[in-house]
Amino acid sequence: MIILIYVVQKGDTLEGISENTGIPLWKIIYDNQLEDRDRLAQGQALLLLGENETGNLGDGMRTGGYAYPFIEPVILEQALGALGELLVFSYGFTFEGKLVPPPQDDLWMIEAAWNRGVKPVLVLTPFSGGAFNNQLIRALVENREIQDRVIEELLVTVEDRGYAGVDVDFEYILPENRVSYAEFVGRLKRRMNENGYQVSVAVAPKTADDQKGLLVEGVDYARLGENADFVFLMTYEWGYTYGPPMAVAPLDKVRQVVEYAVSRIPGEKVILGIPNYGYDWPVPYERGITRARTIGNVEAVSIAAENGAKIEYAEVSRAPWFSYRQAGVEHVVWFEDVRSVTAKVELAREFGLAGVWYWNLMRPFRANWLLLE
User: Fold this and answer.
1) What is the pLDDT of residues 112-131, one digit of tens each?
2) Hey, where are the domains in the chain?
3) Once rounded to an integer, what is the mean pLDDT over residues 228-253?
4) Which residues contact residue 367 at a Cβ distance below 8 angstroms, ignoring those fewer than 6 apart?
């Protein structure tokens, strides 16, 4: 098998790339989801695989991704072949401990997953009014009766709907709930394990025990590592909607989080997060005013090609980016491609991590799934 990531040079054509590599033209177009065969972006990375070949980059690792029940079936189908787990986002709960299912029916996703040999996982979040609510977390972790109710309803739901486990995704946990939150995860794990189900927990990225910040002060890596089967590192959002332009998941920053994580949690219990999206910022950036637009990775390349932009690859961040001008406004775009994904998966292997999960599967990225499969 020949796996090749080719970076488009000035003057390249798809016909020429096909002739030089022996990869059929239709395969290059299909695998990389190219909208216009006559328009390439200088610097874009193309995945070149022979017929009936995949990259096997995820071989031997846990692979998964989060998705909402309103995902387009065709986009989900593209991803399932590369995944071992599908995390369905999300179930919530009330202040009284009653489980709240997602607004859209999730049963079709569960069935689609099992039909492809993929394990569906129920994601539990403390959503209230469309946002994470740390008062809802407080009510849960400080009251054993409410915990018991949530845990038992989770067990019934997992059994009835055919889930393979539960992923706990709580954010903005209050510092004073740090220990009680970890204890709740442990109680949930014990109950689920007794019935053959696993429990994972998603954690905000941090690099020190005493790190300050709303996202991290209530997260105890060591305790959560002891009390969950797996810990998912949400290693993304350095570049984010309201921040200045930068890589969403710069590899140097991700490495720092992994180094800290494996000092507190056995590497074989850690799962690395990979973003399946990018951002388009209008510039100059003004704090409190500028708002980036979320875009897909395939969409990012199309924007570059349409505007004649050259895609650069930052060696420290190990991420692609470009700038362009449209309607008199300058833009900067950071996104992910097969090079940056490969770098992250290789990082996970370097540290002996359990695998990688994607946030999220809602946007197409066929080359990524073929690379991973």
Assistant:
1) 999 999 999 999 999 877 78
2) 3-49, 62-277+337-372, 282-331
3) 98
4) 31, 32, 33, 46, 47, 337, 338
Which is the CATH superfamily of the domain at 62-277+337-372? Glycosidases (3.20.20.80)
Paired tokens of 306 = 């349409």
Q: For domain 3-49, give the fold.
A: Membrane-bound Lytic Murein Transglycosylase D; Chain A (3.10.350)
Half-sphere exposure of 257 (CA within 13 A, CB side): 27
Residue 241 has pLDDT above 80, yes or no: yes
DSSP E strands: which ranges in the chain? 3-7, 45-49, 62-67, 85-93, 99-100, 119-124, 127-128, 131-132, 165-168, 198-203, 230-233, 270-275, 278-283, 293-295, 312-314, 319-326, 329-334, 355-359
Asked whether 299 and 363 are in contact (CB, 8 A), the reply is: yes
pTM of the full structure: 0.97
Specify whether 171 is catalytic: yes
Q: Please state which architecture CATH assigns to domain 282-331.
A: Roll (3.10)
pLDDT for 6-24, tens place per residue? 999 999 999 999 999 999 9
Question: CA 170 to CA 147: how far, in whole Å?
Answer: 14
Catalytic residue (one of 171, 217, 336, 373): 171
